[in-house]
RNA sequence: GGGCCUGUAGCUCAGAUGGUUAGAGCGCACGCCUGAUAAGCGUGAGGUCAGUAGUUCAAUUCUACUCAGGCCCA
């Protein structure tokens, strides 16, 4: 027996039981072990940072990852997939600082690095395993990935692989220490890399200040604009553009000022232009420094030239502080300007800056409190000295913020370690061209541009919880780079004044983290090497996962080699400069290869109003809530089908409801219909298989449609267009299978004894259901499993334990001609229904005849579909009209695609001429294939191809027309038709009563009714028909049935009481 | 300021190698059908395909610019 679904299905409940089934039978494990290892498809899991709870956007990315892997499995590939967790770095440290109530970085030192790191490790493991955490989400949503052998970035093995790769880079001369302007987070007291910078731009209001720099040798000032007043203390020069036009103006209040002519709009008072001059003329002018806290050793405070100066904002003069800007630093080297660095790595002024010593340069939000920056006080100071032209705090722009603590960054000159990625930038660009990006524009555009502007990778971080930079230095700056634990063992530690070699330490004391690694020292040629204290960028960790997840090259050499590069990865667009970049950069650096061949980029998920989801707006969607309400399948299906992954998705719960009702509801309903009748007929696919060629037209049609679907689906999936693939499955199920095939074929299931025709219907519907189930399986893994089990457990046609171990079938029976035929039939039916609807003619009322005018080439197809059409529209006779039929009025329409290229400019006049052609001329073209016309004094022979002939009305009939098909319906009724209509009404009432009375579909009944004699006269003619339809053994007029089920009706003008009773 | 994407019905989205009637679902109104039945189907209202200019016999589609929104970069 096929299992029937209850009327009210609880999808979440089914999903729970499927999860159990998978677990007990190890289906996931089998989906890998049962596939040929030589036919592998490699997927890399981008490790989420295990920090806090997962959200709906994680469900999106994980659905895409999962469905591609499941699909590949179902096409025969072996798809290994290791989960991974990103466990190092600032996000974890910050979460922990919060927990420990620390307010600044130095608290960690006070607390003890060893203890801090131990806590960090505990925290990440807790986040992985906690309730409603990562493991729960992954399992509940059916994301199949190996969680038990996940790679975890904070293990010794992982770090050792990372170290190995760094040593490889060192050997290639790609690692160096440099003094550069870097984005520095004063809160976290660490530099960030440019890709981290990309993660944290925010719209903010900054100071908008115009300052007067007094010139030494004339009574005038240069007007300078800045948004960072705190950098003025380090000012050493002013830059102008040599070719920019400047003006010298006189004002009442502020005296004589120099500024760019194009920026005069900043002067809000009356002024007089005294002189116009080029920037060149200003070069060398000396000015009085604003501050002199710090003595300088070189010539400073004069006007220099800078090609970066623009007149787009400000005053057209840029103040130069070499310690705080990349342009400033570069130009200062060119002019040999002094370097003033009065700010510490934590963003505070040094004691040298007496008035502001210890003050923060920017406001910072600490865990416990906010501390204000120094800008307002500097402005106040300058104002008191009359040096401010104008000061506000209203300059709105996007400014980089720390991606984890949200505080504004400062550009800051300092020492740090770099990877020379610029050396392989061209190679990265080249390799990138071989990657299949979905969508392509992100790869060519966003990522491509990024590669072209490549800067060296700022690798080091001044933090605690992360992979240590494996570099040891001696006092001369000579370095040792450690590439493995073996090499580390050559070092020693000092314990109680004793020197102990690392190799002699117990194994569990060797922890590739701070503070242990800092203890280790090396001795070479009599010199002592100590570790440089920095960690590496956490993004380097995740970018190393292709090899580090396998502890390569220390173990698993073959596995790594056969699984590199990945065939497929999939992450959010925010990873363009994150993981996508670090994977690509490291693969290019270490292996001179790509790290992935195909990738799907997914966009943000917004709320239904298009706003970003955020806790403060309260519009965050909890994935677990969706799962409990609608189930995982509907949520997954909705996310994938509502818009392509690479377009922002507006998340609307209503959408899930609709998906569930329309697609899943229809699919399950269709299955239930099948199960109902198959059970009655004891059908189980053990019957003789009826070859497609011997099946009725409608069966061959749906089979052909099904196989066309498989073909299209496969093509789309192969090109990673998963949204379209799923939409096709849904359209087929709803429109073709349910609304046409099943509806058209219903009678075959519920009528008559079992014969070839009925068997054919069962076999056809079974195949459709089974195939649709398989196609939908990667997207909706649960309900498809349930359906597959229900179908296959009875028939035992396949011996796969799970739909996910089955194979996507190959399309083999496609009959395009037949599909086209049915399309014509469907069009005729729709047109006919439209006529009936417009004229209020119920379908239950049979009509005598209809006529169809259609192009010659399609007449044959139409006549083959006659039965389907007539039955569907309840009309007795179909007349297909010939060309020379005089009842059709024909006009001609130009076929622009043909005449356009042929006649060019004549098209306009020709169009008019064609539209004016009369019936005779059209008939002539139809008969002779051509007609001569004179257009603008040119003789033109138009042929059949040049025009399209449209039949648009039939005299005296109700007519509808569309795309070259014209349908006309004869609405005249006679007594027989009326009688038959009544009989149908009567049947309909009884069927409804059977339903209301809860009779079984196969129960036989007796019928009795009371009504007008006239109605009886009509109905009596159709007694056999009625009995047959309602399974009645007898029908009696004007008699009663004891204890029968009775109801009163109105049939046309007659009142009627009907009583039915089971036999 | 630069790059990329988006702009089609009240809403969510399709589509068109440029061809004269631009589609679907949801919502609304009115019908219909129903032995799958708390489904289904049809009809109707609703669109200057963001705007302007250009290329073309023909532009919603191609090009340029403008406007609006998003993401990214400076």
From TrEMBL:
Protein EC: 6.1.1.5
Membrane-spanning segments: none
Positions with a binding annotation for ATP: 615
Signal peptide: none
Sequence motif 'KMSKS' region, location on chain: 612-616
InterPro entries in the cross-refs: aa-tRNA-synth_Ia, Anticodon_Ile_ABEc, Ile-tRNA-ligase, Ile-tRNA-ligase_type2, M/V/L/I-tRNA-synth_anticd-bd, Rossmann-like_a/b/a_fold, tRNAsynth_Ia_anticodon-bd, Val/Leu/Ile-tRNA-synth_edit
Family assignment from sequence similarity: Belongs to the class-I aminoacyl-tRNA synthetase family. IleS type 2 subfamily.
Subunit-structure text: Monomer.
Protein name as annotated: Isoleucine--tRNA ligase
Gene for this chain: ileS
């Amino acid at each position: 027996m096929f299992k029937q679904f209850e009327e009210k299905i609880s999808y979440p409940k089914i999903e729970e039981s499927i999860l159990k089934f998978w677990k007990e039978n190890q289906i996931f494990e089998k989906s890998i072990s049962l596939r040929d290892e030589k036919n592998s498809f490699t997927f890399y899991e981008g490790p989420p940072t295990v920090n806090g709870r997962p959200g709906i956007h994680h469900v999106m990315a994980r659905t895409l990852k999962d469905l591609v892997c499941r699909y590949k499995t179902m096409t025969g590939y072996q798809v290994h997939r290791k989960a991974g967790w990103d466990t190092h770095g600032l996000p974890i440290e910050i979460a922990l600082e919060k927990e420990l109530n620390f307010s600044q970085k130095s608290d960690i030192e006070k607390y003890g690095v060893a203890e801090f790191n131990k806590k960090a490790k505990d925290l990440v493991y807790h986040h992985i395993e906690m309730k409603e955490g990562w493991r729960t989400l992954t399992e509940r949503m059916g994301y199949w990935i190996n969680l038990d052998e996940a790679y975890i970035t904070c293990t010794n093995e992982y770090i050792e692989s990372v170290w190995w790769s760094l040593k490889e880079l060192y050997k290639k001369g790609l690692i160096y220490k440099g003094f550069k302007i870097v984005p520095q987070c004063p809160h976290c007291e660490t530099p960030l890399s440019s890709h981290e910078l990309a993660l944290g731009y925010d719209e903010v209001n900054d100071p908008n200040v115009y300052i007067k720099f007094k010139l030494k040798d004339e009574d005038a000032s240069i007007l300078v604009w800045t948004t960072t007043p705190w950098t003025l203390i380090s000012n050493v020069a002013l830059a102008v553009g040599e070719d920019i036009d400047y003006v010298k103006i006189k004002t009442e209040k502020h005296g004589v000022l120099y500024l760019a002519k194009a920026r005069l709009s900043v002067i809000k008072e009356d002024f007089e232009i005294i002189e116009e001059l080029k920037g060149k003329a200003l070069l060398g002018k000396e000015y009085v420094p604003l501050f002199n806290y710090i003595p300088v050793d070189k010539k400073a405070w004069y006007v220099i030239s800078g090609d970066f100066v623009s007149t787009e904002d400000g005053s057209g003069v840029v103040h130069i502080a070499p310690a705080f800007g990349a342009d400033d630093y570069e130009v200062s080297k060119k002019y040999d300007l002094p370097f003033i660095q009065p700010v510490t790595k934590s963003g505070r002024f040094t004691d040298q800056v007496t008035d502001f010593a210890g003050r923060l340069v920017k406001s910072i939000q600490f865990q416990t409190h906010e501390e204000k920056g120094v800008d307002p006080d500097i402005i106040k100071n300058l104002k008191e000295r009359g040096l401010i032209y104008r000061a506000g705090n209203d300059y709105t722009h996007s400014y980089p913020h720390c991606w984890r603590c949200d505080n504004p960054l400062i550009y800051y000159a300092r020492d740090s370690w770099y990877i020379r990625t610029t050396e392989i930038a061209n190679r990265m660009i080249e390799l990138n061209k071989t990657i299949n990006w979905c969508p392509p524009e992100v790869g060519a555009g966003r990522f491509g541009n990024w590669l072209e502007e490549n800067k060296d990778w700022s690798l080091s971080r001044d933090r605690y919880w992360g992979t240590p930079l494996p570099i040891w230095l001696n006092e001369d700056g000579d370095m040792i780079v450690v590439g493995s634990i073996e090499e580390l063992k050559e070092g020693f530690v000092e314990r109680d004044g004793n020197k102990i070699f690392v190799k002699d330490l117990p194994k569990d004391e060797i922890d590739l983290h701070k503070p242990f690694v800092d203890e280790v020292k090396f001795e070479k040629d009599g010199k002592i090497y100590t570790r440089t204290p920095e960690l590496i960028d956490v993004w380097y960790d995740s970018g190393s996962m292709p090899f580090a997840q396998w502890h390569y090259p220390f173990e698993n050499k073959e596995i790594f080699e056969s699984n590199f590069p990945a065939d497929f990865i999939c992450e959010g667009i925010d990873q363009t400069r994150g993981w996508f970049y670090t994977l690509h950069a490291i693969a290019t650096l270490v292996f001179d290869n790509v790290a992935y061949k195909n990738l799907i980029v997914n966009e943000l998920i917004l709320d239904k109003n298009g706003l970003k989801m955020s806790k403060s707006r309260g519009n965050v969607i909890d994935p677990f809530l969706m799962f409990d309400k609608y189930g995982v399948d509907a949520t997954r299906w909705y996310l994938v089908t509502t818009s392509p992954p690479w377009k922002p998705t507006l998340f609307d719960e209503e959408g899930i409801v609709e998906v569930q009702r329309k697609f899943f509801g229809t699919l399950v309903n269709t299955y239930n219909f099948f199960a109902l009748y198959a059970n009655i007929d004891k059908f189980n696919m053990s019957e003789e298989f009826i070859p497609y060629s011997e099946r009725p037209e409608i069966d061959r049609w749906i089979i052909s449609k099904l196989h066309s679907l498989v073909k299209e689906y496969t093509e789309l999936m192969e090109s990673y267009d998963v949204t379209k693939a799923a939409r096709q499955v849904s359209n087929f199920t709803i429109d073709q299978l349910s609304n046409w095939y099943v509806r058209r074929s219903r009678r075959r299931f519920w009528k008559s004894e079992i014969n070839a025709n009925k068997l054919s219907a069962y076999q056809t519907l079974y195949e459709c259901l089974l195939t649709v189930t398989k196609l939908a399986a990667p997207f909706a893994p649960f309900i498809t499993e349930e359906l597959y089990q229900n179908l296959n457990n009875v028939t035992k046609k396949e011996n796969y334990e799970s739909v996910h171990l089955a194979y996507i079938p190959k399309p083999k029976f496609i009959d395009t001609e037949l599909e086209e035929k049915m399309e014509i039939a469907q069009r005729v039916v729709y047109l006919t229904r439209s006529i009936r609807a417009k004229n209020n003619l119920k379908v239950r009322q049979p009509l005598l005849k209809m006529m169809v005018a259609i192009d010659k080439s399609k007449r044959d197809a139409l006549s083959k579909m006659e039965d389907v059409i007539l039955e569907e529209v309840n009309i007795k006779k179909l007349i297909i009209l010939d060309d020379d039929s005089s009842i059709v009025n024909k006009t001609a329409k130009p076929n622009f695609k043909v005449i356009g290229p042929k006649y060019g400019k004549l098209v306009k006049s020709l169009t008019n001429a064609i539209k004016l052609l009369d019936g005779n001329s059209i008939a002539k073209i139809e008969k002779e294939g051509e007609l001569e016309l004179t257009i603008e004094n040119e003789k033109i022979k138009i042929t059949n191809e040049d025009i399209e002939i449209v039949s648009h009305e039939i005299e005296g009939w109700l007519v509808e027309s569309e795309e070259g098909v014209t349908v006309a319906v004869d609405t005249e009724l006679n007594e027989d038709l009326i009688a038959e209509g009544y009989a149908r009404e009567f049947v309909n009432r009884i069927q409804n009563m059977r339903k209301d009375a809860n009779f079984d579909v196969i129960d036989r009944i007796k019928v009795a009714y009371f009504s007008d004699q006239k109605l009886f006269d009509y109905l009596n003619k159709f007694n056999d028909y009625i009995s047959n339809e309602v399974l009645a053994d007898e029908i009696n007029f004007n008699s009663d049935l004891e204890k029968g089920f009775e109801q009163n009706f109105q049939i046309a003008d007659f009142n009627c009481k009907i009583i039915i009773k089971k036999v």
